């Protein structure tokens, strides 16, 4: 799945930030994790290295967005297409991806 994001506000210092803090970019999945907790650990590594990310999960249902257990479809971690290689390398070095 490929998402195209337009005018996404980014934090100062993010590698993908364009003029005015907004940029057009394609988001791609860097990995899928069984829970938000594990996806959050991976996201922290990316954030500490200046890589913008977003987490996508199917939160609807009886458990709602506060659910911290495993998800049937997994929890996806998305990054800008231009940051994919670096994100994969960081997460593999940390042992979070094979």
Give the SSE layout:
Elements: E1 3-5, E2 25-33, H1 36-48, E3 53-57, E4 75-80, H2 84-93
Antiparallel strand pairs: 1-2, 2-4, 3-4
Describe this structure in words.
This protein has 2 helices and 4 strands. By secondary structure, the protein is an alpha+beta fold. The protein has a domain at 27-93: Hypothetical protein rpa1041 (Alpha-Beta Plaits).
Give a brief rundown of this model.
The chain is an alpha+beta fold.
CATH H level, superfamily name of one domain? Hypothetical protein rpa1041
CATH hierarchy, class of one domain: Alpha Beta
Which structural class matches the secondary elements?
A: alpha+beta
Characterize the biggest β-sheet: 4 strands, antiparallel
Low-confidence stretches: 4-13
> Percent helix among the residues?
10-25%
The run of helices and strands is EEHEEH
CATH topology of one domain: Alpha-Beta Plaits
Q: What are the key terms here?
A:
98 residues; 2 helices; four-stranded antiparallel β-sheet; single chain; Alpha-Beta Plaits; 4 strands; alpha+beta
């Amino acid at each position: 799945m490929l998402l195209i994001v337009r005018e996404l506000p980014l934090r100062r210092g993010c590698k993908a930030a364009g003029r005015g803090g907004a940029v057009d970019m394609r988001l791609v999945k860097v990995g899928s994790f069984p829970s938000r907790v594990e996806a959050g650990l991976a996201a922290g590594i990316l954030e500490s290295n200046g890589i913008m990310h977003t987490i996508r999960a199917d939160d609807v249902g009886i458990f709602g967005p506060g659910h911290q257990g495993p998800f049937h479809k997994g929890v996806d971690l998305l990054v800008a297409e231009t940051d994919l290689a670096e994100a994969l390398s960081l997460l593999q070095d940390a042992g979070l991806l094979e």
